Amino acid sequence: MDLQNYTKIECVEAGVTVSDKTECLRQATKLAKNSSILKNVTEAEIFEALQAREKIGSTGFENGVAIPHCRLKNTTEFVMGIISIPDGVDFDSLDGEKSNLIIFIIAPQSKTNKHVRLLSAISNILRIPDARKAMLVAKTPQTLLENFLRFNRDELNPDKMGEQSLFHITITSESIFQDILPVITAMAPSSLSIVEARQESEYLSKMPIFAGFWNDRESLTSKIIIAQIDKCLANETIRRLEDITGELDKCSEVSVCVQDVFYSSGRLQS
Fold first, then answer.
1. Residue of 8, 21, 33, 69 with catalytic role
2. Rounded to two decimals, what is the model's pTM?
3. Which of 93, 123, 136, 233 could disulfide-pair with 182, CB 3.0 to 4.6 Å?
4. Is residue 61 part of a domain?
């Protein structure tokens, strides 16, 4: 995904000081209104939509990152901006720490899939420690934006569907699953499903002939990501998976199977 098309320099501010989460959302609202895309939307509408999203659950995550976002009916394009807050702000984050990098998105209500892909692409950048460090030291909006975009690796996504590869990714670790899912989502899969499953020992141990086996093992629940991804991105997808897991051959919590797709037709709307 080409984030440069969505991130507006007029919506970027470095070295901001805010007293609390509400003031931070107001700052994001004011910056968003700098974009001509939102000329028909009032500040009140944007601010209320951002607050409504926060009531569903905080968008303050870990490692000093928050990604407030909302969807509006009366806009057709995305507006994205960045705020750096060196001293941080209490954003009700998952780890209880202050947030000092705020990336906000004002999205059209009708473009859910693209909105999810955009969130995934941002998440993939901000999980890179060097990206966060480079953004925090930026003194100007231009440098802040440049330091964000140079870590973007999702510009590879093709616009047209070509030959496809089918990925089956089985994961037994919940934390690894939460890292991997945004990576796969950002690759613009034409279809993506998640299945919960148990290992074969869970079932075999209940059959009389196999009774007594595996009794000393903890029951493992797996999540299986099934994704159809453009074939030209298959190697890049595997590389990004190994950024998380290390060498897959040595990983005991993730297995990956990739197949060529002989025939595919239709899409599932999410």
1. 69
2. 0.72
3. 123
4. yes
